[in-house]
Amino acid sequence: MSGRAWYDVSPSAARLTGSLRDIGYDFTTAVADIVDNSVTAGATRVEVMIEYDGPNSRVLIADDGCGMSARSLLEALRFGTRRSYTRGELGRYGLGLKTASLSQCRVLTVVTRSSKSTVRTSARTLDLDLIEEWDQWVVTDPQPGNETVDRARRWLVEGTGTVVLWQSLDRVLSEKRPEGGWARRRLESLSKRTAEHLGIVFHRFLEGLPERPQLVITVNGQKVEPWDPFATDEPATVELAREAFEIETATGTGRVQLRRYVLPARDRFSSPAVFERLSGPLNWNRQQGLYVYRADRLVQWGGWSGIRGIDEHTKLARAALEFETDLDAAFQINVAKMRVALPPQVRQLLEAPVNELCILADDAYRKTSRSVSRPLPADLRNPPEERAVSQAAANAGLALRMAAMQAGHWSAWEAIEKLLREQSPDVAELLGLEPQ
Fold first, then answer.
1. Residues 6+ apart with CB under 8 A from 212
2. Which of 223, 251, 282 is the last residue of a domain?
3. Is the residue at 32 inside a domain?
4. Which of 100, 59, 63, 62 has the alpha carbon at shortest distance from 79?
């Protein structure tokens, strides 16, 4: 800027913080963004407490991670923190802690402890009322005598960690009706939805990953159960061969992995209850499609991202699309980490394997539909050993179809199927190759 005049036009703190409240979070995604920080801090336990207390209702999110020093805490409360993020960290823009929290409340307090040997905590507060009054980016000490802050400090007596406290929940409870039965029911409903959402988004961390300790999350004392969208524990789930793609970016080459699954039809699930649970929050039709994972954290799910449309006949098809944080720019990950956009080169590479998956899912669906009105097959009245042989033969038939498709000989396979049905109908039936 040598030789040119320049002017400091810092944004209005009051106006900008107000705008950032509407960046796109709802309650469950805001909580998940805070849990991202806990995962990055190496936490093995995260406790979410959504507590009704009329106008003093609050939310606490406590973890046993590595915590922060006093200086790091101040930096964490900066909008657009200067810290850099390494590969695999769930943070991205340096906004999540602030924007997620203030999308739901007017007062954010963070209490943290980073020393294992010394019981020393640091606590700082972002208060929207104060920012609006002063029109400055200010962080303060918590109000003296705040019992919930004192409680957070006591929570950290046992070891390192961080407690995030939301108060003045103006976006959660109506300002005119923050108390009474409606408000209590509202928080109870949010508790259930939050547990469900966290079980989906962090299911891989809850199940356990090879390179980090298993994560435990509780919501109001209840352990969150992981929700595996691919029913990998079900014996009848079929996983197709994995695909991997390399894509070019402005900074180099990145790797994307695709894992494809055909889920069992209702009558092949281990129990009706498991089938209903696997329908997911969007139900079977809208739950089909791509599940996009960023560093093992589920970001987006449901639908085929424009590759094809949702179809009743392909509702058993689900696929995991996985990438690391070095591809954030290519996938255009948003601030709330809830949406991605498939890069054009990835979309093109996905078309063939996605269509293969949907053909097999369609076949599995139609086979079940044809058998719904038939009498109970004789083999289901046979001993378990014979049923196992029958199941193995059906799996072999499905495997043959997949192999023909992957080898590029689908038309030849269709001709083979037709001959088998005509010349050896018993073999065709055993392999699950029923008439079209």
1. 42, 205
2. 223
3. yes
4. 100
Backbone φ, ψ for residue 62 (5° rounding): -115, 140
**Inter-axis angle of helices 384-406 and 344-371, nearest 10:** 140
Tokens of 293: 């994972």
Domain check: are 356 and 284 in the same one?
yes
Q: Tokens for 431?
A: 């392999």
Domain hosting residue 417, numbered range: 375-436
In DSSP notation, 259-315 reads: EEEEPPPGGGSS-HHHHHHHT-TTHHHHH-EEEEEETTEEEEESB-TTSS---GGGT
Q: Is residue 271 part of a domain?
A: yes
CA 48 to chain centre: 17
Nearest residue to 108 (alpha-carbon basis) of 4, 220, 33: 33
pLDDT in tens, 374-412: 443 444 445 555 555 565 666 677 667 767 765 667 678
Q: Let me know whether 341 and 426 are in one domain.
A: no
Burial class (CB in 10 A: 0-12, 13-18, 19+), 92: middle
What tokens appear for 216 in the block? 């435990």
In a domain, 190, yes or no: yes
> What is the number of domains present in the chain?
3
The amino acid occupying position 374 is: R
> What is the pTM (predicted TM-score) of this model?
0.83
Token pair in block for residue 424: 């050896």
Query: CA angle, corner 323, sides to 320 and 326, nearest 5?
Result: 170
Distance CA 95, CA 274 (A): 38
Handedness of CA 103, 107, 110, 111 (dihedral sign): negative
Task: In whole angstroms, give the CA distance from residue 289 to residue 287.
Answer: 7
| 403 shares a domain with 327 | no
∠ CA 159-162-164, rounded to 5° = 145
Model pLDDT for residues 258-312, shown as the tens digit of each residue = 999 999 999 899 999 999 999 999 999 999 999 999 999 999 998 999 999 999 9
Q: What is the CA radius of gyration of the chain?
A: 26
CA separation for the pair 201, 22 (Å, rounded): 22
Residues 98 and 209 in one domain: yes
6 is a domain residue: no
Domain boundary among 355, 372, 389: 372
Residue 1: count of CB within 10 angstroms of its CB? 5
Q: How far apart are CA 153 and CA 167, in angstroms?
A: 16
The per-residue DSSP string of 366-427 comes to HHHHHHTTSPPPGGGGS-HHHHHHHHHHHHHHHHHHHHHHHTT-HHHHHHHHHHHHHH-HHH
